[in-house]
Specification:
Blueprint: H1 8-20, H2 26-37, H3 43-55, E1 59-66, E2 74-80, H4 82-101, H5 104-108
Antiparallel strand pairs: 1-2
């Protein structure tokens, strides 16, 4: 498997997959990220991140049922793997540790 480092976009995508749980597919992931972050992005950007994350073993996907609104095409649904959850938790711990290490005076002199 490839490295465990997550970029900001990859972390947002994985978090959105977790939030959406059983309804995490390209459009819903894009919409969730935009709703929660106020950041707009293209669907192709989300799909590229999903593919990389699946290649790394952080996500798994399966095909959902076809719907009329999608012209009979099925949705590709994603879930976070146990390995992906571990990587997200490690990222959160590292970020929190760094935030907690910033001396108060660093913020007071800004």
């Amino acid at each position: 498997m490839k490295g465990t480092n997550l970029g900001e976009l990859q972390e947002l995508v994985m978090l959105a997959v977790g939030v959406l749980y059983d309804d995490a597919y390209g459009v819903s992931i894009k919409d969730e990220i935009e709703r929660q972050s106020g950041r707009s992005m293209t669907l192709s950007t989300v799909h590229a991140a999903l593919n990389r994350l699946e290649d790394k073993g952080f996500l798994i996907s399966r095909m959902g049922g076809a719907t009329e609104e999608r012209g009979g095409r099925p949705k590709r649904l994603f879930r976070v793997t146990a390995y992906g959850k571990q990587v997200l938790e490690e990222s959160r711990v590292m970020r929190n540790r760094m935030w907690e290490s910033i001396p108060r005076i660093a913020w007071e002199n800004i």
